[in-house]
């Protein structure tokens, strides 16, 4: 087996170029960071989903900068090889570009390799400003949880031609501004596949079908510990496994081989 090296942006781009699927999971603490890293997960997302799965809020909106810094530090202390992305929490990048740069810098000082932010063309100048300052950016389009109240709930996006056109323009604007990764959430599989094919940067899907360059799931969802009714696109990887490590290894293997996700179960 070849020696493992810390993941880089260059390597993620190479994987995308040769069609190797990228595996990503959310991660919020050191114990899981160690386990996920050792299990070969390519990228760990310190997602603001921590507000829901760790803190018990109904949405991601209450998550603060201090909490995002704290969880990033927890994860990066234990991680060795995986690429670490931290979500910019709600309110940390909607003000001036200067404020957003300061907040992104705090997350990078905490050990993140890249920040993620939700938003389309309006966010392009901010993405450019961050990238120019040496901060890699991951965009997030489709269902954007920080806009849950504007979007009218947890709803599938990209349902009609106009919405698809807006998504296309947003994705291309983020790529042109220098984003080097894009998350697409809750989109019809055909729409996500088409968007992925129009971009040169890797696209990571969640509830967006199999046509993306990689997949991300919320860790607690794929371990079956989130409680409540899960969306159809979530698979409980603990089923048929004896322990968490085996479940995570199965997730990585299934993303890499294309066994996950299964578009016949996607449902939209
Ligand atoms: O916060 C998060 O976990 C996310 C994923 C749903 C992509 O943004």
Descriptive terms for the model:
alpha/beta; 268 residues; 14% strand; binds 3-methyl-2-oxobutanoic acid; 40% helix; TIM Barrel
CATH class: Alpha Beta
Percent in helix: 40-55%
| Ligand list | 3-methyl-2-oxobutanoic acid
Parts with pLDDT < 50 across at least 5 consecutive residues: none
- Order the strands across the largest sheet as they lie in space: 1-2-3-4-5-6-7-8
| Topology-level CATH name | TIM Barrel
Radius of gyration: 17 Å
- If you average the pLDDT, what whole number results? 97
Number of domains: 1
Largest sheet: 8 strands, parallel, barrel
Please give the CATH architecture. Answer: Alpha-Beta Barrel
CATH 4th-level superfamily: Phosphoenolpyruvate-binding domains
Distance from first to last alpha carbon: 39 Å
Percent of sequence in beta strands: 5-15%
Helix and strand sequence:
HEHEHHEHEHEHEHEEHHH
DSSP, total strands = 8
**What structural class is derived from the secondary structure elements?**
alpha/beta
Dominant shape: globular
Give a structural overview.
The structure is a single chain. Helices cover 40% and strands 14% of the residues. With 268 residues, it is an alpha/beta fold. It has one domain: Phosphoenolpyruvate-binding domains (TIM Barrel, Alpha-Beta Barrel). The chain has an 8-stranded parallel beta barrel, surrounded by 7 helices. Helix 8 (189-198) links the parallel strand 6 (181-185) and strand 7 (203-206). The termini are far apart. The model has no long low-confidence stretch (mean pLDDT 97). 3-methyl-2-oxobutanoic acid is lined by residues 26, 45, 47-49, 87, 183, 185, 206, 216, 218.
């Amino acid at each position: 087996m070849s020696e493992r090296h810390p993941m880089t942006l260059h390597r993620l781009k190479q994987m995308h170029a040769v069609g190797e699927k990228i595996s990503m999971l959310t991660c919020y603490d050191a114990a899981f960071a160690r386990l996920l890293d050792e299990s070969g997960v390519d990228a760990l997302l310190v997602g603001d989903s921590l507000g829901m799965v760790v803190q018990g809020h109904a949405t991601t909106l209450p998550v603060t900068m201090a909490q995002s810094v704290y969880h990033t530090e927890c994860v990066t202390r234990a991680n060795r090889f995986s690429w670490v992305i931290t979500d910019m929490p709600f309110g940390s990048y909607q003000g001036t570009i200067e404020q957003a740069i300061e907040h992104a810098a705090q997350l990078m000082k905490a050990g993140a390799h890249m920040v993620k932010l939700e938003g389309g063309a309006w966010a392009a100048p901010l993405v450019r400003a961050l990238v120019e300052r040496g901060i890699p950016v991951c965009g997030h389009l489709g269902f954007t949880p920080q806009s849950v109240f504007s979007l009218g709930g947890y709803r599938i996006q990209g349902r009609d031609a106009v919405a698809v056109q807006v998504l296309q323009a947003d994705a291309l604007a983020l790529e042109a501004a220098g984003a080097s990764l894009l998350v697409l959430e809750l989109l019809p599989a055909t729409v996500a596949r088409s968007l992925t094919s129009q971009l040169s940067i890797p696209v990571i899907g969640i509830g967006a079908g199999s046509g993306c360059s990689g997949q991300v799931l919320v860790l607690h969802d794929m371990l079956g510990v989130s409680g409540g009714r899960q969306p159809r696109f979530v698979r409980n990887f603990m089923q048929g496994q004896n322990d968490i490590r085996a479940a995570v290894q199965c997730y990585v293997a299934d993303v890499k081989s294309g066994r996950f996700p299964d578009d016949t179960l996607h449902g939209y």
